[in-house]
From TrEMBL:
Keywords: Membrane, Transmembrane, Transmembrane helix. It holds the Pfam family TctB. Residues 17-150 form the DUF1468 domain. It comes from the Bacteria. It comes from Vibrio quintilis. The chain crosses the membrane at residues 12-35, 41-60, 80-97, 103-119, 126-149. InterPro entries: DUF1468. This is Tripartite tricarboxylate transporter TctB family protein.
Amino acid sequence: MTTRTRRPGELVFNGLLVIISLFLVYQSSLISGFTSWSSPGFFPVLASLIMLLSSVFSFVRGCRMSSPTLPVLSFWRRVLPRQVMIMMLAVVIFAFALSEIGFLPASFIFLLVTIRLFYSKNWLKTLFITIVSLAIIYLIFRGIFQVILPESEWLTQLTGIGV
């Protein structure tokens, strides 16, 4: 049987899962506890207990493995590659832009930039995919589900139309 070494960050991740699982067990027990099989809190408590047991098992198994031989820099390259970091930053900017410029302009810019960066180097193709995607998203959420999407007050006052 071959022994596997821990991957960089694996033990920290498993430890965080144990802590989160403990918190979820506590939170789910506040619903109604484990009073009966049909109580509203039974399945959340059961699910969080299963998560806790499996995360403790993974943590203990990780403690028994030998330490990774790769440097810390390798951890960041494996866990958060450049593309993931860029996308996380884009999502944070998009979240702030929603309240400032509204759903349609913020989504248009977000889709245009991310599709251009990660998929297509052709501007015409990128623009086409962005417009079609945004139209479909808008029709589904605004038209079918009737979700009220964020609008920008200052942009609406400037243009006279809600965007």
